[in-house]
Amino acid sequence: MAVRVILEVQAKPGTGDEVVAFFRSILPETRAYEGCTSVDALQNSDDADNMVVVEVWDSHEQYEEYLAWRRERGTSDRLKQILAEPPSIRHFDVADA
Fold it and tell me: Which of 82, 66, 93, 79 is nearest to 2 (CA)?
């Protein structure tokens, strides 16, 4: 079952554009990763240091494989270095409403 992933990050004050550039550099690999259906990076209109990345994956397992791959490559550690606080990652299933 497809899963939606919401990654929210808060950049250090005044460094939102650096975080945007970071995502711009890594998201092509994310989009090409097996199981990734789509990824959109959104920058908060009222706080340029706040971003949300909305991802759609074929399954929760594929996302977890991708996340492990990012951790192995050190991408997660590089991201944490430019953030004001740890990122928030939430997983959602589509509700039949």
Answer: 93
The string of pLDDT tens digits covering residues 32-78 is: 999 999 999 999 999 999 999 999 999 999 999 999 999 999 999 99
Report the sign of the C-alpha dihedral through residues 47, 33, 57, 71, in that order.
Answer: negative
Contact 87, 16 (CB under 8 A): no
- In words, the CATH class of domain 3-92 is alpha beta
Residues 6+ apart with CB under 8 A from 5: 53, 54, 55, 56, 57, 63, 89, 90, 91, 92
Q: In the chain, what are the domain boundaries?
A: 3-92
State residue 19 phi and psi, 5-degree precision.
-70, -40
In the prediction, which pLDDT does 95 show? 86
Residue 17 has pLDDT above 90, yes or no: yes
